[in-house]
Amino acid sequence: MKPNPNPLSHYLSKKVENIRPSGIRELFDLAQRTAVVLNLGLGEPDFVTPSHIQEAAKQALDEGYTHYTPNAGFLDLRQAIAEKLKQENGINVDPEREVIVTIGGTGTILLAIHTVVDVGDEVLILDPCFVTYEPCVTLAGGRAVPVPLREGDFRMLPEEVEKSIGSKTKCIILNSPMNPTGSVMAEEDIRAIANIALQNNLFVISDEVYEKLIYEDAKHFSPASIPSMENQTITINSFSKTYAMTGWRIGYAVANADVCTAMNKIQQNTVANAPAIAQRAALAALRGPQDCVRDMVKEYDRRRRFLIKRLSKIQGFSCQAPKGAFYTFPNIKTLGRSAMEFTENLLKKGKVVVVPGGTFGQKGEGHIRICYAVPIEKLEIAMERIEDTVKQESV
């Protein structure tokens, strides 16, 4: 066999080559190879999926739910999703034509972006933001345009959105509660951005996977509940965070019937459908008792309060209390070193994993993301190790 004169990169898609590996996953993999590590990096609930949801999955196995499902998902699950949206979000949808069950929140984001973005289109994303947005836009042939969040409270200002719009802008991605900052968008800001979208004929993709993880006086608001936005919004949600179902890979999207039909065309030609057993479990999650969600949120809030109080005692750290999700995003700029340097040193010396803020965008530089979806006893140990590492570096 003759040697191949072309390097492997010769065959790879340029779109794939332009995507950076996930910094979160790199740290997670490194942590797996390091002994006695406290992982505050991966955004995953530490709770086990509630028992009534597990039992529904077991029953589904016994009943033979091991085959293909409708591409858009079982109708009874879509009906339950529509009921939930009407009661909790003020969104009225036809479950047969305007709901699609998908492969987790991340899969839903990819599906939504590919549905509305053409080659050359620009998509406005938050900066900092969830690491998946930009790669998904790149894979669709578009270009992500970061909209800087206001320092401190990480507010997405409507005037910044308006300034970022160009002749090729097609879509705006919103995320509330936000990953990585834990911020919750105010209804007035969402309404103002929706109005900007309407004036400029832009689509809105609203990532609401953390909607139930909300604290204090914050309130969740869905842009699709604005009557004029019904046809210009894809609402994305997932069972992963709310019901501790990350491994089940089950999410959903709701949109105008024509948009959902287009999304379904992509889904049926890629992954076909969400797993049948996970769909039966998701139905039980929606129609079963919700005290499990309230209990988890109550515990997250306890950890959140502890973490904010404890971080305020570490020299060089400043952090506003997040109102949603399960992340804090403290500013460490006064330590005099990059977040990446601090993160690597913390893993090496303190055996604690956090994520450098630059992973989430340019405006994340000088911050670190700490996930408090771990038992409070581990948070206490981690805070001691972080403080010790800071003190060692300052000597």
Structure description:
This protein is α/β, with parallel strands linked by helices and 395 residues long. The chain contains 13 helices and 12 strands. It has a 7-stranded mixed sheet with strand order 2-8-7-6-5-3-4, with helices on both faces. A 3-stranded antiparallel sheet has the order 9-12-11. A two-stranded parallel sheet has the order 1-10. Helix 4 (75-89) runs parallel beside helix 10. The radius of gyration is 21 Å and the shape is globular. The model has no long low-confidence stretch (mean pLDDT 94).
How do the strands and helices of this protein lay out in sequence?
Blueprint (H helix, E strand, L loop, with lengths): L13 H4 L5 H10 L5 E2 L11 H12 L12 H15 L9 E4 L1 H13 L5 E6 L5 H7 L3 E6 L9 H7 L4 E7 L11 H13 L3 E5 L25 E6 L12 E4 L2 H12 L7 H12 L3 H21 L15 E2 L10 H12 L1 E2 L1 E2 L11 E4 L4 H19 L1
Parallel strand pairs: 1-10, 3-4, 3-5, 5-6, 6-7
Antiparallel strand pairs: 2-8, 7-8, 9-12, 11-12
Q: What letter string, H or E per element, gives the SSE order?
A: HHEHHEHEHEHEHEEEHHHEHEEEH
Unreliable runs, pLDDT <50, ≥5 residues?
none
Summarize the amount of helix as a percent range: 25-40%
Strand order of the largest sheet: 2-8-7-6-5-3-4
What CATH calls the topology of the largest domain is Aspartate Aminotransferase, domain 2
